[in-house]
């Protein structure tokens, strides 16, 4: 019998891999990362149309960078899948701290699928972004905000989450990431992680990313100047905020 704890994930009957299907793009699914992903992942990240908007990953992005990143993201997903398995006889759905699916894939007519990108929800770790904008934050205060957010109990509605995403350029502008964000937000983050507050950011001028967030109910909360340094340049960022009152849970 299917494990009800996976709800609303579906499970591929052949591979047993769980997935979420996009609401409007039915040929696109979101699954856990796979060990075969790093090759496609490197190709996407090394495209300037993608990495010009990303400050985190080293560019050029080599296989060893990809392997190191997969070693970071894979174990927590394996752990949450194991926790869902272990809870299969519990009457109520458990609340968890991570979304077990993040790799966006297109299903082709022949049934195979192709890696298109990623959408990851994590606890916000940047103490400067966690602080209210009017608060002057030194290193010590930033680290206090970061620890507070990291130490909140699983399911605490005060946790502030963030979202990072990217998509292969051949598929930009087709409404895929807007759909993916809505799918993960409504399907998992709100009901299964109890996400109530999310702060996202995008480099100044990244209109596509800002629109993806705005179309999902995020409000622009301002521009933070000279906020982040990447590859020898300092960038301004748009900050976007989302919150949900319990009365409005879908
Ligand atoms: C940002 C990104 C994830 C958007 O994904 P997407 O699937 O192309 O976005 P959507 O098709 O859902 O578009 C959402 C909105 O943004 C607009 N948009 C998309 N790309 C745009 C661009 N380059 N410039 C201006 N607007 C853009 C769309 O027109 C749409 O708005 P509308 O419905 O009002 O017309 C994708 O462009 C990407 O991977 N970029 C590189 C990496 C990146 O920037 N990641 C985010 C870091 S914060």
UniProtKB/TrEMBL annotation:
InterPro entries, sorted: Acyl_CoA_acyltransferase, GNAT_dom
Pfam families in UniProt: Acetyltransf_3
SUPFAM superfamilies: Acyl-CoA N-acyltransferases (Nat)
Sequence ranges assigned to domain N-acetyltransferase in this UniProt record: 28-219
Any one GO molecular-function label of the UniProt entry: acyltransferase activity, transferring groups other than amino-acyl groups
Protein name, per record: N-acetyltransferase domain-containing protein
Organism (species): Collybia nuda
